[in-house]
Amino acid sequence: MSEIEGLRGNFWPSTRERDLLRFLLHVDEEESRRSWARWRPGWDPDAPSSEEYRLYPLLAERVVALSLAEPHLGMLQGVRRQTTVRNLMYLDQLDDVLATLDGAHIGTVVLKGAALVLSVYRNTGIRPFQDLDVLVDPQRYDEALRLLRAEGWEALYDYDPGLWDHASSLRRGEVNLDLHRRYSRELVIPGHLDLSWDLTESVPAPRALRSGRAVRVLAPTDALLHTLAHGTLARGPVNLRWVADARQLVESSDIDWDRLTRLALAFEVAPVIHDALVFVRDTTGVEVPPPPLARLASATLPLLARRRLAAFHTLRPTGGLRRIPVEVDRYLELTRHLPAAEVLSHAPHYVLVEFTWPRVRARLRPRSG
Predict the structure, then answer these.
(1) Which among 119, 169, 118, 120 has a CA at the least distance from the CA of 148?
(2) Which among 43, 87, 291, 331 is most buried, taking Cβ atoms within 10 Å?
(3) Torsions phi, psi for 358 (to 5 deg)
């Protein structure tokens, strides 16, 4: 994890990771080559970090584009071919999921990796993804979940509908599916859950599935907001792929910067969106208009909103008594969709569930059908 002067938080890529991103993504080829010269000597191709490995297909493309003499190019291209096959297999599973939901006339929007592969990346194997993410009309969420379970999708764990309910994690065979009723825990308007769905703008993906089925994805502006908010979550390891996704969206799409600003203000995430855009601009060289950056920078948030934002975007040490602030942050994440009064009312249940022995916890946690 890294801190960068002028940007809030400690979840940014390290200096070495920024060199890799500049090589892969910078619009100036000479800057890209300079970044390669700094990054390449310390690279062990047989022992990449998980985030480096996920960038191998893009690395293969960039090495070829810049005509670099890289002895491990064949290996990188092999990873890209493997990614292509895996992505196609997942997209076939997506086709089956959408067929089930389309048959019941349930509205769907595909999110994250699969959506980006079908919309802003030129080739299926450039952007790996490890699961499927499908947002459905929250008014018909329970029905969608029942239909998919009838098709063999099994829930990975039970859910408490009062707290961690932005998505259900399902699995069938080797494929994972997150069925969303909201974008994420963070992109919500407390007390107005369905408003998130109502605010969503979606468009047909430029590419259909192999069956010819059309797929709806987030409109570019909404997808950029989701990418910036989700990519900068304080998790380990620090996410790198979001920078590539954001650059692709900005370069290949017509971003409505006024809409992006309005959504960031509505969801009370303006400070993070501002800093993420600054990072993308400075790392890749893509142009971000100054006026929306100024509007985002001047946004003021209420105290609870600031504290909730910090919970999502601050990496904290764990262990011993340090577990307490970590659990406070987690609780603030899980209850992001609730107004302040309900946050307080759910707190005793959360404490009982998380701080009691497993045998007691199993009895306390409500089970969904």
Answers:
(1) 169
(2) 87
(3) -55, -35
Q: Where are the domains of the chain?
A: 84-218, 301-369
Pairing mode of beta strands 108-110, 132-136: antiparallel
Token couple for 38: 């700094």
Secondary structure (3-state) at 74: helix
The CATH topology of domain 84-218 is Beta Polymerase; domain 2 (3.30.460)
pLDDT of 361 reads: 46
Q: How far is CA 359 from CA 11, 76, 164, 356, 364, in A?
A: 35, 47, 20, 8, 9
Q: What is the pLDDT of residues 160-217, one digit of tens each?
A: 554 556 888 999 999 999 999 888 888 988 878 777 788 889 999 999 999 999 999 9
192: its two tokens: 């107005």
Number of residues in the chain: 369
User: Rounded to whole angstroms, how far apart are CA atoms 241 and 57?
Assistant: 12
| Residues 129, 94: Cα–Cα separation, whole Å | 12
Going by C-alpha positions, the residue among 322, 257, 325, 328 that lies closest to residue 294 is 257
pLDDT digits (tens, 9 = 90+) for 242-265: 999 999 999 987 899 999 999 999
